[in-house]
Amino acid sequence: MSCCNTTVICCGIKRQLVQDCVECNWLVFNQTPTVIFQANKVVSASGTIELSSATLGMTTVDVIFSKGATVIKTFTLENQQCLAFTVVGFDTITLRGDSPSSTESATGSLCLTPRYQI
Questions:
Q1: Residues in a beta bridge with 77
Q2: Are 58 and 41 in contact (CB under 8 A)?
Q3: What is the pTM of this model?
Q4: Which residues contact 26 (CB under 8 A, 6 or more apart)?
Q5: What's the chain look like in SS3?
Q6: CB contact set of 57 (below 8 Å; sequence gap of 6+)
């Protein structure tokens, strides 16, 4: 979603002149890495990510910010936990659950305001 009006609702908040706003719901199964954001250039961003629901065997989900193959920052979310973050210099956000069982999963949401270097 490109927020180009003078007043927009981005991530549930009424804002003035937001550059860009990315919102998505996500679903992760077992330990399979799932890319939830990928840019064609390096970005810095602030946002929130929430793990709203998980099956009993899925206790945590890792949120991995990377630039190419290099991990920049990793956060770990537990069930019903929300994290506010600012991370500099990444192009991909990947999620990975902690359960090896293919029947385990977790769901949540991401709200991101990316900033692009000139």
A1: 61
A2: no
A3: 0.84
A4: 34, 36, 95, 107, 108, 109, 110
A5: CCCCCCEEEECCEEEECCCCCEEEEEEEECCCCEEEEEEEEEEEEEEEEEEEEECCCCCEEEEEEEECCEEEEEEEEECCEEEEEEEEEEEEEEEEECCCCCCCEEEEEEEEEEEECC
A6: 99, 101, 103, 104
Reading the chain (118 residues) residue by residue, the pLDDT tens digits are 343 444 555 666 555 545 678 899 999 999 999 999 999 999 999 999 999 999 999 999 999 999 999 999 999 999 999 999 999 999 999 999 999 999 999 999 999 999 887 6
Task: Tell which residue, 29, 80, 11, 26, has the closest CA to residue 52.
Answer: 80
Residues 64/93, Cβ–Cβ less than 8 Å = yes
Question: Among 59, 56, 46, which residue's Cα sits nearest to residue 110?
Answer: 46
Of the candidates 4, 67, 9, 13, the residue with the CA atom closest to the CA atom of residue 37: 67
Report how far residue 110's alpha carbon sits from residue 33's, in angstroms, rounded to the nearest whole number.
16
